[in-house]
């Protein structure tokens, strides 16, 4: 009997988790699933994503996967991506640290942010620098 109750509970949790995660990724224009919190990242890759978003002046929702093992496993299944951090823009999976770094370096991140109505602080800073030169 105990196994039956426990199994039913597990099935119920897994059945609702993708929907819950779907709601989380749609909860803000930019959502990050990371190890730790933005003020105190607990891995170098999460820290790099935080720094990239900070440079662009992006406000985002962050979820600490170390605080919730179900979320940690669930987000990997939801995105079909095995690593953390994971970044979502406008409800769509963008990638992890390596992809964010690449997008930051080639200017693609500025364009993706612009599509969802976020003006990159780097773009604004560059405009101000151009204006002072004129």
Automatic annotation (TrEMBL):
This is Glutaredoxin-related protein 5, mitochondrial. SUPFAM superfamilies: Thioredoxin-like (SSF52833). PANTHER family: GLUTAREDOXIN FAMILY MEMBER, GLUTAREDOXIN-RELATED PROTEIN 5, MITOCHONDRIAL. One of its GO terms (molecular function) is 2 iron, 2 sulfur cluster binding. Keywords: 2Fe-2S, Iron, Iron-sulfur, Metal-binding, Redox-active center. It comes from Neodiprion lecontei (Redheaded pine sawfly). Residues 30-94 form the Glutaredoxin domain. GO terms for cellular component: mitochondrial matrix. InterPro entries: Glutaredoxin, GRX_PICOT-like, Monothiol_GRX-rel, Thioredoxin-like_sf. PROSITE patterns: GLUTAREDOXIN_2. NCBIfam families: Grx4 family monothiol glutaredoxin (TIGR00365). The keyword Metal-binding applies.
